[in-house]
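Problem: given the chain below (237 residues), write out its structure.
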Amino acid sequence: MKIIFSPAKDMDLSNPIWDEQVNFNDNTFKIIEEINKLSEDEIKSALKINDNIYKDVDSFYKNITKEPFYKSIYLYNGLSFRQIEKSFTKEEQEYLNKNLLILSALYGPIKAFDLISPYRLDMNVKIKIDGNNLKKYWKDIYNSYFLKDEVIFNLASDEFSNLIDRDKVKIIDFEFFMRKDGKLKSHSTTSKKARGLMLDFCIKNNINSVEDLISKEIERLEFIKIENNKLTYILKD
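Solution.
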């Protein structure tokens, strides 16, 4: 079983790793080279950033192969990642190494404790690598990480999960709602928060199957139904 998860734009630089070398793959270097060819205005336009963060982003790419590096699970700091209790036991670290893949537009599928550099990039950035947009560039590489008929818990956004070949693997999708004014409503913030809570629960409870998951009560997520390989939950707060 694998769990796929989206990266985040927000980065936490408080846990640097020094005195270690990282050899990024050739696919990553091709993207870095293309971005470093862009002018300041082209970078701002392609990455949809303003003057306030341009210098940081430009520095990330100019110095991306230099220390310090960061373990990915600690570097990403978006809403979903902030729901994860990151003081992992040895068993939880083993679970993460075995099961979790964070789907990056720059690094490809990465594990929780892989060393990476800070960056800013998503799959919708309009750059060409070997004549392909980022989604086409990564699609085959993404799918090479999964065994045929492997069960995949999809806790990633459509931007990333749509690259996975559903004919090859068994995708278990999740949808999350909140109750408001007596109705069930979905929202991107609800989904991000609930995905983090679900991942945290899977880590802490060594979840390895759908049956295992739905047999357990989750404190802040209420299980509603499973239908057509989709699990529906309500975020309680």
